[in-house]
Design a protein that fits this description.
Two copies of one chain form a homodimer.
Chain A lengths: L7 H8 L3 H8 L7 H14 L5 H7 L7 E6 L5 H16 L3 E6 L4 H13 L4 E4 L11 H5 L4 E4 L9 E5 L1 H14 L5 E4 L6 H16 L9 E2 L5 H12 L7 E4 L2 H13 L9 E6 L3 H4 L5 E4 L2 H18 L6 E4 L2 E3 L10 E7 L1
Parallel strand pairs in A: 1-2, 1-3, 3-4, 4-5, 5-11, 6-7, 6-8, 8-9, 9-10
Antiparallel strand pairs in A: 10-12
Helix pairs in contact in A: 1-2, 1-3, 5-13, 8-9, 10-11
The structure holds a DNA duplex (30 and 30 nucleotides).
Chain lengths: ~350, ~350
DNA sequence: TGACACAATTGGAACGTTCCAAATATTAAG
DNA sequence: CTTAATATTTGGAACGTTCCAATTGTGTCA
């Protein structure tokens, strides 16, 4: 267990050159002679040298630390896990590393985490903001020249780049599909009404209803937490309505699963007795029974795209805010009652 | 957009003290007068100072960077996402940040990622090693005084700490449960036979069979990739056996889901016509239909525990290798045919 | 009043790298 | 063989922090 760590000076001494030369080798500069380079590299391997990025970064005064910060609001949601994987892919192959943190929707935690990342000198940040994040929260970062890309949830008013999926179009196509199957009373279930994403999806729902020539009824819009439990709650409210809906588009897949649970608890089989459509297409969606009809958003693709965008800005040196909305597509499976080849009946023991 | 960054010297000047004093304030040393502290803090806020950990870390020569590296082999598997969340929780509240990377089972990627983390001066590493990771791969780290905690998959022969779940006991209890339900021919399905985890689980299976007074038949052990697809494959092989099994314990939940798929493809209903038990208790397990009976290992708990262990070693300054196996418990749901209150019949349209 | 403890503050030297300007070695041209 | 051009190499001086030893101020005690 060698105590002192090996520095460029040590290897310079051992290779019989100056530390400057070693530094040049490290940066694979073309100025250095092939022979010297080989020798230096050999010595480095031999002594087990490890590059000290901290020191390098210090000298390069605010230059690239090659660290990308990624903060998501709920990593246990596989949607975000996929997203992080997408980011990691491109970030890693560009020679960067990823600082990943989870805020669990806590805005305080988010602040802490971002501050900490800044102290570590991240060269860019990808963030899916916690609920109620203020649009100005990332101002100091961009002021300091650190590019920020907001994903999934947009932050209207913030002057940062963002990538969101086409929530409007997605919801519209879901409603259209249900209308084509003959449904007239279609509910919109779940989601917190104070978010931009909710607004977009609801707008898509309204447009879809209108396009299908169906009336919009306020009572059919039932908000709740965007979680499984929230779904159960929302469908509960929907089913006691005087004029019951026969189908629902849900804020996201988690809600949709909750809706299925709620239906079953009332002896209704999703897909057969009531049509349900989700949003996100998380991995569980196709595995569930019945398989969930849902709007696919390819979180990994969004992650990759966000990373590319961020890297572009980092390399360009300037952060020109740009907004991208990614295409989505409806994936028809069983829960909407369309493609069902297997009808499930229950009999209680 | 202020160009130059604010340093301790700037705030020292502005506050009318020396940089040393500012440094003391930063470390909240008790040496500094309350009045001075307040003033310095005020100036820091005013000028928008951000601490440069890189520089600090440089001076403190190999001291704490407050970065914990976390590398997992498959983040899209919610088991590992949960684990990462658990780590993040304790790591974050201890004032550290987490570097998270995904190897996708690539050993080259793992090497790259770990090297990169080292360059960034991580003060500790938590790793779920990619398959075929060599026991000596982390030697340089521990030699450099960087504590390493291996989770989930142990690395026999490596002199590092590890936390694995009690695979043996878990499998035993699963087999015992099936035997109590009257099953005699119980298969062991899925998993790669060249891993330590496989060995442990298989050993548990054998002990369980023995304890239940059942014979061990080589043919009932069918390995495959530890994935959903692998599960389909394994059950396929099992069902063509001359003397078919009536139940199976699976290497993990992914395999178990695949087994269910495979059963259904053959018009067999898991839970009713064939009992299946998984391992891990991923979140989807309780949501699936039928809900999966499985061995719960609490990945988040393992993550927390691993982080605690690592922090302890970091604080102690010495990395005494210690091995922990965490308790598991069988969660009985529907797929084993035990607690089923709802029997599902299919009729094909 | 001098001596002494104690509190608070401070200037420089370090940490491991990169950059710059300048030095030296090598080659080509005359 | 000199000169100019080119190819390599090289000492410092930074970067922003922490640490150490030393300094200054403030009160206490004989």
């Amino acid at each position: 267990m060698t105590k002192a760590r090996v520095t460029v000076i040590d290897i310079a001494k051992a290779a019989g050159v100056s530390k400057s030369t070693v530094s040049l080798v490290l940066q694979s500069s073309s100025l250095v002679n092939e022979g010297t380079r080989a020798k230096v590299n050999a010595v480095m391997r031999e002594l087990g040298y490890v590059y000290n990025r901290g020191a390098a970064n210090l000298r390069q005064a605010g230059a690239k630390s090659r660290i990308i910060g990624v903060v998501v609001n709920d990593l246990t949601n596989s949607f975000f896990a996929e997203l992080a994987v997408g980011v990691d892919m491109v970030v890693q192959s560009a020679g960067f590393v990823q600082f990943l943190s989870n805020t669990s929707e806590s805005i305080d935690r988010q602040r802490e985490v971002v501050a900490s990342m800044r102290e570590h000198g991240i060269s860019g940040l990808i963030v899916s903001p916690a609920r109620a994040t203020d649009a100005t929260d990332f101002k100091p970062l961009v002021a300091a020249g650190i590019p920020v890309v907001v994903v999934v949830r947009n932050l209207p008013g913030a002057k940062v780049s963002s990538i969101v999926s086409d929530n409007r179009a997605g919801m519209m196509s879901a409603v259209k599909h249900l209308a084509e199957l003959g449904h007239k009373r279609i509910a919109f279930l779940g989601g917190f009404p104070d978010t931009a994403v909710f607004d977009d999806r609801l707008a898509g729902y309204r447009s879809g209803m209108e396009a299908a020539g169906l009336d919009y009824h306020q009572e059919l819009v039932i908000s709740s937490a965007p979680s499984r439990a929230g779904g159960v709650e929302a469908i509960g409210k929907a089913l006691v309505l005087a004029d019951r809906p026969t189908a629902a588009v849900c804020f996201n897949d988690a809600v949709a699963f909750g809706v299925c649970d709620g239906l079953r608890a009332r002896r209704l089989e999703p897909g057969a007795d009531f049509a349900v459509v989700g949003f996100d297409d998380v991995i569980e969606a196709q595995a569930a029974v019945p398989a969930l009809t849902t709007v696919s958003v390819d979180p990994q693709g969004i992650g990759r795209r966000a990373a590319q965008m961020l890297l572009k800005q980092i390399n360009a040196g300037k952060a020109e805010a740009e907004t991208v909305t990614t295409a989505v597509r409806l994936v028809v499976r069983e829960s909407c009652g369309a493609g069902m080849r297997v009808k499930i009946k229950q009999d209680f023991a």
